[in-house]
Amino acid sequence: MKTKYSNSLIYKAHYLAFKTDMDNKAIAKKLKITKGQLRYVLYQHKSKPILDEMYIERIKQDIEDSDKLLRKEKELTITESFLDFFTLEKYK
Question: Which of 78, 73, 76, 3 lies closest to 33, judged by CA?
């Protein structure tokens, strides 16, 4: 999709709007665009994630998946299952 706004401007706008506490007027002034243009950039264009963010998300997902597998493979002992049964929320 071709746009008249560069990917770096879109990324900067998304970063400033969603990761900082700057208001839209200050962001528009910093990026040297109007408030209407900023609204268009924020709500019509999606920011492409940078490689580091994609890499971090992938690692997090892999860790969560491996944790789930480890929890499934481990069978509870009789004592653990007994304690789990009596610590359920519906019995408190």
Answer: 3
DSSP, res 47: P
Write the CA distances from 27 to 8, 32, 43, 47, integer angstroms: 14, 8, 14, 16
Q: What is the DSSP letter of 75?
A: P
Count how many residues are written for the chain.
Answer: 92
Angle at 19 between CA 56 and CA 7, to 5 degrees: 75
Give the model confidence (pLDDT) of 67-85 as tens digits.
776 666 667 778 877 887 7
Higher-pLDDT residue of 74, 21 = 21
